Amino acid sequence: MSEPRFKDVDNVLRHPAGSGDVKSALRVINVLDLLGRWGGARTHVQISEELNIPKSSLTQVLRTLTRHGYLSFDQETRGYSLGPAIENLGARSRTTRKLSEVVAPVLEWLTEFTGESSALNFREGDDHRVVATVLGPHRIVAHLRLNDRAPLHATSGGQVILAHLSQTLREEYLSRARFESYAKNSLLSADDVRSKLDRIRENGFAKVVEEFTPGIGGIALPIFDSRQRPIASLSVTVPVGRFTDELSSKSLSALGKAIASLRHRAELS
């Protein structure tokens, strides 16, 4: 005997269609929402009935979500449940939030040790965004502002994240990136970026000199999650007049220590 359908449709359809909604996207949202709140597996028929979606229309939605890891399918019970990709998204969100909460004293030490501005950067789509920063004590500094954005390929903090993404994600990015002349050493083609990313992966860090902002250089290291995926970066940003080899080496060493401290504070394994 099959289980009864939900009587309270509004309780299931937490996201009723609005005037600007895409129907297929709304179905995806409602499937994920149903399975998340149900806390267990539901069959194709049950999902169709409970969300009032025709089985024929639901089939491709379920197949696509399963293929990309957002749903798991049990051959024995024929039930669908939330997949590992959902868990990964949640874990990433928790990790980045934790990093933001504990980074302030780490950046303060990093800036005090190097004498230069430092920042925590996150990848957001095709950009890197400054989510926390401490400015250096000099009268002339690299002035970083919260929520400053730049293309991933244009800055040290973005490049070091981009370099450690999977090859598929790197190539997808390069296929749609716009290569502009921001400063005298800007990377102006996908091939230029590929060559630099190869060097970054080999060396483990990214260094730029006047690639995005005239008169400014920077050096950065990646921060990885427990599955060795780049989720953020720490960077030191310096006016080129002070960006000596000695300061680069000092900053690189300090970045390594800062990331170790940050991982400990954020309880990253």
Automatic annotation (TrEMBL):
Keyword field: DNA-binding, Transcription, Transcription regulation
Gene3D superfamilies to which the protein is assigned, alphabetical: 3.30.450.40, Winged helix-like DNA-binding domain superfamily/Winged helix DNA-binding domain
Domain IclR-ED: 85-269
Ranges of residues in domain HTH iclR-type: 22-84
InterPro entries from the UniProt entry: GAF-like_dom_sf, HTH_MetabolicPath_Reg, Tscrpt_reg_IclR_C, Tscrpt_reg_IclR_N, WH-like_DNA-bd_sf, WH_DNA-bd_sf
Any one GO molecular-function label of the UniProt entry: DNA binding
Gene Ontology BP term (one): negative regulation of DNA-templated transcription
Name of the protein in question: IclR family transcriptional regulator
